[in-house]
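Quick note —
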Amino acid sequence: AIIDAAGAAYTVSLDIDALLDELTLSSADATLDLGSRDVTIGVSASLTAGRLVMGSGSVIGGAGTVTNGATIDAFRSTSITAPFVQNGELSIIAGPGGFTADHTVSSGFTNTGTIRLTSQVNARTASLLVTTGTLTNNGAISVDTGVGGARQIAASLANNGVFTANTSVSLAGV
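Predicted structure written out below.
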């Protein structure tokens, strides 16, 4: 699947789970909204521009590597179980609808972009869990107050970049 049309802002929304050999998101005008759907990547996913929105229960999995050079917004309980390369922005956003945001990445990865934990609308918990391997930060991690709530990172963290805590954060090694 290739999402690359330019012009006015537009959204592509999934209403079924998808099995894709390849995914390309390369338009700054595009938003790919997964809703609560799962996407399985067979070969690769290249996100170079635009925004990918993950909703409650959505999973990006498969054997293909997901390379994020765009923006991923993760709301509620979301997961990336595919191999992951983080060069863009990954925002874990709690609060809308009164829910927490728990984003899980199943294997270690290197961040050369920005990871943000924050909240909107309601003061709720935003957390990042890396279940195996190491989260190597060569970019920036920003723990923001938003409208309140707890912030948690559960990962074996190797910080070589910038780690900014604008509010308290619970750090736990896995």
